[in-house]
Design a protein that fits this description.
By secondary structure, the protein is of the alpha/beta class. About 40% of the residues lie in helices and about 15% in strands. The strands form 3 sheets. The protein has a 6-stranded parallel β-sheet. Helix 1 crosses helix 2, helix 1 crosses helix 3 and helix 5 packs across helix 13.
């Protein structure tokens, strides 16, 4: 198993630097290049931070101090909890880190399931020690959970009073759309949604808009579609864009699943990707590299996010009550054939 020294040696920095970067120390000044290099090595070596284990005083063979703790997780999505590969990759990292302490998830629910009052009351009665919240809960639901669960950690959440593990959604979208603009695209569609119901407040949409503005391209709402993260709505929205009088030459989808649905709709209309329309997504789910054509995307360190969330929850369950902090993991552009016309390849 890789150690922090292995990461530091390969990245050409000190172990202290690695520690401060992966723990989101905002007071530590270093370059974006160094941060990205460290996180890249972390992924390459499959290094899992083990701060909690290092600080434990129990010896090998003795029971874990966490053995009686119960941990739950809520996915703030409307889809079936085992159907989205993005969330499943995060869960994989989360469960792997918990298993190192002899722990597993005692409960896993989606917000759609918790709309059933019986299910929600059952959750509150579980006497959970800690909980991971993926994305954001309705305010009333969040308040009740916070009153009944002692330790909460968020992943990509808007709840400001708990720790948050995330990636920069604004930057990810801006990076993807800027790449499309560099490839010569000036008319770029948007497929996405927002839990608040106002897509203009969503960070990925704002990143999309920022890239357009920087390039002097005016926003065109006729090619901006709120899919409600529904595959059916995304498919229909893509058809609407394609059947408009002035369809885009490229589409930015705020998730890989939406991007793959868009590609399917484009083919249904007898068009080609990327020759007629380029498509790029966000998250780099496993199936992205096997799609036809392979999907260009923004890689999000999903397993690392899950592991970091588990690490932070363990830290809190040990009694650490420092102010909530946000740990932002870096993203990177992955260029594949869905945006690369043959005569455009470098």
């Amino acid at each position: 198993m890789a150690t922090i020294k292995d990461v530091a040696k390969k990245a050409g920095v000190s172990p202290a630097t690695v520690s401060r970067i992966i723990n989101g120390d905002k007071t530590y000044k270093t370059t974006d290049e160094t941060r990205e290099r460290v996180w890249k090595i972390v992924r390459e070596l499959n290094y899992v931070p083990n701060q909690a284990a290092k600080n434990l005083s129990f010896q090998k063979g003795r029971s874990s101090p966490f053995q009686d703790y119960k941990i739950g997780c809520i996915l703030c999505v409307t889809t079936e909890k085992y159907s989205d590969p993005y969330y499943m990759a995060i869960l994989s990292g989360l469960e792997a880190r918990l298993s190192q302490e002899g722990l597993s998830l005692s409960l896993l629910r989606t917000t759609s399931e918790l709309e059933d009052k019986t299910v929600f009351l059952n959750l509150l009665s579980q006497k959970l020690t800690g909980m991971i919240i993926m994305e954001s809960l309705p305010e009333d639901m969040y308040r009740q959970i916070k009153e009944n669960v002692q330790h909460l950690v968020g992943i990509d959440t808007i709840h400001k009073d708990i720790d948050n593990i995330c990636y920069d959604r604004f930057e990810a979208a801006e990076k993807a759309v800027s790449y499309l603009i560099e490839k010569g695209h000036r008319r770029i569609g948007y497929l996405g949604s927002c839990s608040s119901g106002d897509i203009r407040k969503e960070k990925r949409y704002r990143g999309y808009l920022s890239a357009l503005t920087e390039a002097g391209i005016e926003e065109d709402l006729s090619i901006v579609k709120d899919t409600r993260w529904s595959r059916k709505q995304c498919y229909n929205a893509t058809l609407e864009i394609l059947e408009s009088g002035n369809p885009p030459t490229a589409i930015f989808a705020a998730s890989d699943l939406m991007a793959l649905v868009a590609i399917n709709a484009i083919y249904e209309k007898g068009l080609s990707v990327p020759d007629d329309i380029a498509v790029i997504g966000v998250s780099n789910i496993e199936m992205a590299k096997y799609s036809n054509p392979p999907l260009s995307t923004i890689d999000v360190p999903k397993k690392e996010m899950g592991a970091a969330a588990a690490e932070q929850l363990l830290y809190r369950m040990k009694g650490n009550d420092s102010p909530p902090r946000t740990i932002i993991l870096p993203t990177s552009l992955i260029v594949r054939e869905s945006t690369e016309k043959k005569n455009q390849k470098a």
